Amino acid sequence: MAVDHNNGQVDQVVPENYENLLDDYSHFAPPAADEVLQGTVLGITGKDVIIDFGYKSEGLVPLEQFQARSGEITVQIGDVVDVMIEHGEQPEGYVQLSHTRAARLRIWDNLDKAYQEQLIISGHVLGRVKGGLAVDVGIKAFMPGSQADPRPVHNLDSLVGQDIPVKIIKLNRRRGNVVVSRKMAVEEEINVRKGATLEHLSEGAVVTGVVKNLTEYGAFIDLGGIDGLLHVTDMSYGRVTHPSELLHVGDEITVKVLKFDRAKERVSLGIKQLEPDPWETVAERYPVNGRVIGRVVNVTDYGAFVELEAGVEGLIHISEMTWSRRMKHPSKVVKPGDQVEAVILEVHSRDRRISLGLKQLEPNPWTTIDSRYSVGSVVEGRVRNMTDFGAFIEIEEGIDGLVHVSDLSWTKRVKHPSEILKKGQIVQAVILNIDSGSRRLSLGIKQLQPDAWESYFQHHQVGDAVHGRVCRLASFGGFVELAEGVEGLCHFSEVPGYSGRRGSEEPPLSIGQEFDFKIIKMSEAEKKIGLSLRAVADDEEKTRLEDYQRQAAAATTTIEEVMSLKDRGTE
User: Fold this and answer.
1) How is 13-31 classified by DSSP, letter by letter?
2) Looking at 327, 361, 395, which one is the last position of a domain?
3) How many helices (H) and strands (E) does the chain have?
4) Which DSSP helix (H) or strand (E) runs through 105?
5) Do residues 248 and 233 both lie within one domain?
6) Do 395 and 384 contact (CB within 8 A), yes or no?
7) CB neighbour burial string for 524-552, b if at least 16 within 10 angstroms, e if fewer
8) Residue 412 falls within a domain, yes or no?
9) Is residue 5 part of a domain?
């Protein structure tokens, strides 16, 4: 204390370290109302947690405020915790504190900050409520169903019990209401990840992603905020019927970026491009005329596809399955899953095509047909197929011969082979021609019997009288059946009494009439016979005249003989 000698007043003594003393003793000042204090856990009893909060007395917090729902104590000695002084009756020697009130106040401060700065916080989904979900963000908040995900969620219960990121979209501290959105938090995370992904994404890059969805044509892969399409044809060099054969939702996979449209944010991905293309060396590994073993993976109308290795398939065309031409469908020979041996016929690496053959495993029957059959020999076979122009007869496996419709009968005018033959019928035929180079075999059935025309020409000649029936009429004459399969033509000019004036009279012949005709022309090469009724009439007239003349001559002789006898009697 100092004395002012001029006025006699005593000045107050101010120590030099006064401010430091204020700092040292400030903790003895009572805390303000609703002030959040930080204290250190000194001990834990059966009921309370003892807290040093920097005041003249230690504080007590009920133990249940530091217990989880399971009953586990969540603090230990030395932990720093938030507390507030509870007003009212105080325990002897201690200050009653509340951790719950302090934590709630601190939570509201944190929520308010998160709301103002639009920060993403973590929440725990408690359960379903009307219109949405209850979410624990330190206090119980409400999340509308429309804010659960960027895409419509049909089952909100799937989120119950999960820890999710959310953003606060409404906050009323006075009413204690908080509304949160997982949709906005997810979208923000996606945008952040997308931005980072787009910076490093380029065609040819190898990246890692997660299978997000499977479709019939491929899989969508989440690359980090942006989805890429992995088409089914780019999953494997081998045959893939459906993406689910190789992938499952949630799988983490490595892919290669094939195409990237930055403007449209479209990404095409591939897995098989990470491995060498087996077709690049296929010509070296599968030489022509070599034999291979593979598995039939598909059968079509035109052939069967055989997998030789993963990503390499060959086609056995239906024409290369058997030497026989009667193959109707490849399923008659092979079916999916069969393991088959085949001969390599052609390899086209650029077109990714390999032609295979089954029939080449056996000798070609056409190469030895000339030594096994000869023209004129009789063979037996089954009628396999019929067309308008003839019937195909299989005389052995892989050898079909054609019987032309004209070689079915000597006598009948056959319009379709079904008039003579039936499918599946066993018949005999004569070999008419062999063309092994063109794989053609001509057969004849009518040749099994003598030619009716040939026989007729052997036993008849011009001038012979024959009997026949009119079977067909034409504008110029009538066709007469002389024997089975043999016809002759009687021109109307060879019919007695026919004037030849068209339209002036009825045809002189009618179908079904039978007459005796005279052969006036014969051509064996053209199989033509000319007939005449007029010649028959002329012959009959001549015969009658000759008979008359003979009779007249005989009568004259008789008169002369009578007169001679009479003369002798007179003498």
Assistant:
1) P--TTHHHHHHHHGGGSPP
2) 361
3) 7, 32
4) helix 99-117
5) yes
6) no
7) eeeeebbbbbbbbeeeeeeeeeeeeeeee
8) yes
9) no
Question: Which residue range forms the structural domain that includes residue 77?
Answer: 32-103
Residue 462 shares a structural domain with residue 524:
yes
Contact 553, 545 (CB under 8 A): no
Q: What is the mean pLDDT of residues 239-266?
A: 87
How many other C-beta atoms can be found within 10 angstroms of the C-beta atom of residue 58?
Answer: 16
**pLDDT tens digits for range 38-76:** 889 999 888 899 988 887 778 888 888 888 777 888 889
pLDDT digits (tens, 9 = 90+) for 542-562: 888 877 888 877 777 666 666
DSSP 8-state symbol, 131: T
Name, in order, each residue with C-beta under 8 angstroms of 241's C-beta and a sequence gap of 6 or more. Answer: none
The dihedral through the CA atoms of 66, 72, 73, 74 has a sign that is negative
Residues 8-35: pLDDT tens digits? 443 444 444 544 544 444 445 556 656 7
Q: What is the mean pLDDT of residues 242-263?
A: 89
Residue with tokens 């016929």: 345
Q: Name the token pair of 427.
A: 């018949």
Contact 132, 122 (CB under 8 A): no
Task: Provide the CA 19 distance to its chain's centre, in angstroms.
Answer: 89
The full length of the chain comes to: 571
User: Residue 570 falls within a domain, yes or no?
Assistant: no
Residue 113 lies inside a defined structural domain of this protein: no
CB atoms under 10 Å from CB of 269, counted, come to 26
| Cα–Cα distance for residue pair 283/277, rounded to 1 Å | 13
With cut-offs at 50, 70 and 90, classify the pLDDT of residue 347. Answer: very high
Q: Sorting pLDDT into bands at 50, 70 and 90, what band is 365?
A: confident
Per-residue pLDDT tens for 496-519?
Answer: 888 766 655 678 888 999 999 999
The CA distance from 115 to 7, in Å, is 63
Q: Which H helix or E strand runs over 537?
A: helix 534-570
What are the structure tokens assigned to 172, written together?
Answer: 């009323």
Do the beta carbons of residue 59 and residue 45 sit within 8 Å? no
